[in-house]
Amino acid sequence: MTLALKKSIPESKPEKKKLSLFIAGVGAVGGTLLNQITALDHHLFELEIIGFCNSRFTRWHPNEEQIEHARSLKNGEKTDWTKIPQKLIQDDHENLILVDATGSEAVARIYGELLENGIHVTTPSKRANTFEQEYFDRLTEASNASLAAYRFETTVGAGLPIISTIQTLLNSGDEITKISGVASGTMTFLFTQLQNGVAFSEAVRKAKGEGYSEPDPRDDLSGEDVARKFLILARTTGYNFERDQIRVDTLVPEDLISLSTEDFLQKIPKYDAHWKSRNAQAMVNNHKLRYVGEFTPEGISVGVKEVKADSPLGNMKGTDNLLQIYTKRYADSPVVIQGPGAGRDVTAAGVLGDIIDIGRLV
Predict the structure, then answer these.
(1) Are residues 136 and 228 in contact, defined by beta-carbon separation less than 8 angstroms?
(2) Are 30 and 134 in a shared domain?
(3) 8 A C-beta contact, residue 258 and residue 246
(4) Both 129 and 103 in a single domain?
(5) Measured on CA atoms in the order 104, 108, 113, 115, is the torsion positive or negative?
């Protein structure tokens, strides 16, 4: 008996779903994100850049070369955030997503309008979620109504899955009772440098030089960054808080608050002795200094604390974040999330993860 061999017919690859992106802000995070998108060959999605902008200029429908040199954008249409929202809303591209990597208040204020008109939003900026509670509720309601997806995983912990973990716990019917830990990679870096004998002022300069801190390190040292992160955590958990309800311990001396960044960096060394003494005292007690935040339904506080040297917080290194999430189900042994909490690469990768997550929903 002769068997006839059937010709194998090659399977056709499914057509990729197109996601259209407008990138607001093409600096450290936005520029890195563009590089990651260009290098990505996803099996399900095709990511198309329909435009990008910096604070001065906007480029629509860029070619490959223009995308490659996005960080050096020095001409084009003037960036106007009174006009860009309408242009996006009237756009006929598929599955349009605004990526806001600016940190701008003006950009954060347009999220509501975009979401309510079917434009998806993802951002590493903490601005929108730390405006008045009413605005956060508006964004949440627009997203919950399935008008468009709103993703902000990278607002707390860069690329760490903190927001999504909280939402998964809540969706399972659990109840968050406390969140505590270190939510600033910059602060971890500063205090581990102190432990290694580096002067406080030198640690601040290194944090700035290596890109761990904001361009003005006082934005980190003030505790405002951590306060905003814990405000986002509390609101994501379902509690109503305003910024003025948070107790914040600042590391910026009062007489250095109003100086220029350059003058601040020149004068901060006079506080080196204070931090050397405070660090030494903690070590004598077999403790280490950490900048710790804590949220419970009763309130939010952030500030410098002494923690046991052999504790999870005491063992942190580099730019790590470590958050402990206590719930009704995880009352005695919390859910712990730890990893790098600063850096343009991990933050951009987290935003890219949000983009893909949105793609799976649409």
Answers:
(1) no
(2) yes
(3) no
(4) yes
(5) positive
229 is catalytic: yes
pTM, full prediction: 0.91
Spell 330-345 as b/e; 16+ CB within 10 A means b. Answer: beeebbebbbbbbbbb
Q: Catalytic residue among 126, 229, 288, 305, which?
A: 229
Q: Give me the domain span that covers residue 86.
A: 17-158+345-361
* pLDDT 10s digits, 280-307: 999 999 999 999 999 999 999 999 999 9
Query: Do 265 and 349 fall within a single domain?
Result: no
Q: What is the pLDDT of residue 1?
A: 47
Residues of the chain with pLDDT under 50: 1-2, 5
Asked if residue 191 and residue 299 are part of one domain, the reply reads: yes
**CA separation for the pair 162, 338 (Å, rounded):** 9
Residue 244 shares a structural domain with residue 123: no
- Pair 259, 296 in one domain: yes
Q: Output the six-digit token pair for 328.
A: 């009704």
Task: State the Cα–Cα distance between residues 345 and 358, nearest whole angstrom.
Answer: 20
Ramachandran region, residue 146 (left: φ > 0; alpha: ψ -120 to 50; beta: rest): left
Shared-domain flag, residues 248 and 207 = yes
